[in-house]
Amino acid sequence: MNDAVTVPVTSPHMLAEIDGPIGWMTFNKPERRNAVSLDMWEAMPEILHRFEDDPAVRVIVLKGAGDKAFVSGADISQFEKSRSSEESNAHYDRMSELAAKALGECGKPTIAMIRGYCIGGGLAIAIGCDIRIATEGSKFGIPAARLGLGYGAPGVKKLVSLVGPSFTKEIFFTARHFSATEAQGMGLVNRVVPDAELEDYTRNYCATIADNAPKTMNTLKRTVAEVVRGHEADWGLCDRLVKECFASQDFIEGRRAFMEKRRPVFRGV
């Protein structure tokens, strides 16, 4: 990231950089395996909205600082301060919900680049992304049953949508760590690569995505979200989005580039 532009962030435990078409968001607490604290939840929407508003950013990558973890869960050491009362607990829950909402509603492709532990809240963040790329040594799990806590329906629904009811139950019932191979087998991650190849592989993946039409990708993201809603889906919205693609300058550019046998240059309009 030698040419990356640093984006100011209110939390010292979160980093944001723009490097070409990639917006990098880094969970920066390696001494605690990037466990998420309140200030980190609060900073996530700030960073995501900044990336979303920048037309130069075509794809967003979430990663953990250091080589031990993507995110190892919530920073329980902060709970005495951030979850010690009904009021503070409600605020914490609200901030984590807003972070999840910002990630889920982001109109640009999002990738979780996972190295090491991806546990609990970290796994919730990862499954909130569109694509997950992990190293061979990564570990995944949700330890709720070992902590005696309940897990909210929205989070369970996202996991069920990704891996199905049976694997969701196995993940929760056992509360164990799953290997990257097991995670890929159940559909929890898209790709598994050697540790040394993770960043290069992810950058190449991002380059492929960045070459494509932003409106098409945004339409696909929003259509998938509606399809997952089932009988509550807004099919009219899906139709309007498709029509917007056909009416766009990028569609004209795509046709011309195809006929002229050249690489298209999409501008997202």
Please give a structural write-up.
The structure is a single chain. By secondary structure, the protein is an alpha/beta fold. The protein has two domains: 5-210, 2-enoyl-CoA Hydratase, Chain A, domain 1, CATH 3.90.226.10; 214-259. 48% of the residues lie in helices and 16% in strands. The strands form two sheets. Strands 1-2-3-4-6-8-11 form a seven-stranded mixed beta sheet, with helices on both faces. It has a four-stranded mixed beta sheet with strand order 5-7-9-10. Helix 1 runs parallel beside helix 3 (86-105), helix 6 crosses helix 7 (165-174) and helix 10 (214-228) runs antiparallel to helix 11 (235-246).
Set down the secondary structure blueprint.
Layout: E1 5-6, E2 14-19, E3 22-27, H1 38-53, E4 59-64, E5 69-71, H2 79-82, H3 86-105, E6 110-114, E7 117-119, H4 121-127, E8 131-135, E9 139-141, H5 144-147, H6 153-163, H7 165-174, E10 178-179, H8 180-185, E11 191-193, H9 198-210, H10 214-228, H11 235-246, H12 249-259
Parallel strand pairs: 3-4, 4-6, 5-7, 6-8, 7-9, 8-11
Antiparallel strand pairs: 1-2, 2-3, 9-10
